[in-house]
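quick one, 279 residues, struct below
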Amino acid sequence: MKKASLFILVSSLFFISCSSDDEVVQTPIPTEGNDIPTVYQPIKIANYWNYDTENIPVEPTGTTVTGQDEVVVDSDVVLNTFTYKKMKTVASPTGFYCNMLNNNNLRIDGSSLKLTGTITANLDASLPLEFNVNDFVIFKENGVANEVLSQTSPASFEDTSILPNNAKLSFLYSLKSTYLGSVEPMNVKGITYNDVKKIRIEVNLKVNIGDFLTGITALQPQNVIISDLYYSKNIGVIQSNTVVKYTLEPSLAPLLASSGIPQQGEQQINDYITSYLIN
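---
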């Protein structure tokens, strides 16, 4: 875990259903097609995607900020005997999706798309965080609705740079990705895209002032980032809609406000594809 200020950006649960007599039954996850390489995210070198982005502050309210991102498949990189594609943005990314990919590594493993690197995002302007992931599944072509693709075990880190007098903040987080199924054709920026599949990425976070044994809880466990990604066949992500939201314990609001952290925060981050090149 790299140095963090307070942000976030997911492991393998079982999807279960209850029978009429309340017996818990595991829903079988089919494996047919797992070995067939996905075509939903072409990652040949020099492929690129351009996006219009918008960051909409909901609470506290503010001015919507728009931008443009371009992410490129830059080069091959070998990690732990696997060959990945290094993803890079042309400039500092303004949207969530390109920020998630920037300087990180992707590989296709059968029907799954796996991400290795460091995910960064902001819980608040004063709260940037970084999280390491290893072969985190961000897409699966043959998934079934509500199938959990990846879920990290809870991990923790500490930071003493946010609060006055080097007071310690302790963070406990986990990340999860879920396949939500196929959706109807989508119109993005006036263009209709077919064969669209939806993935959700969630970041759950708990924050204590002090340690987790004797400290005071400042942020009860909650999903602070929920990002929906829409993949179109032979293209990649055509749209992402992300909500970053948190609510701190009211009794600690004055202390955290002195460090520039509002008690509540919410922003919406949207990315819309405008052009792409697939080799």
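The two ends are 35 Å apart (CA to CA).
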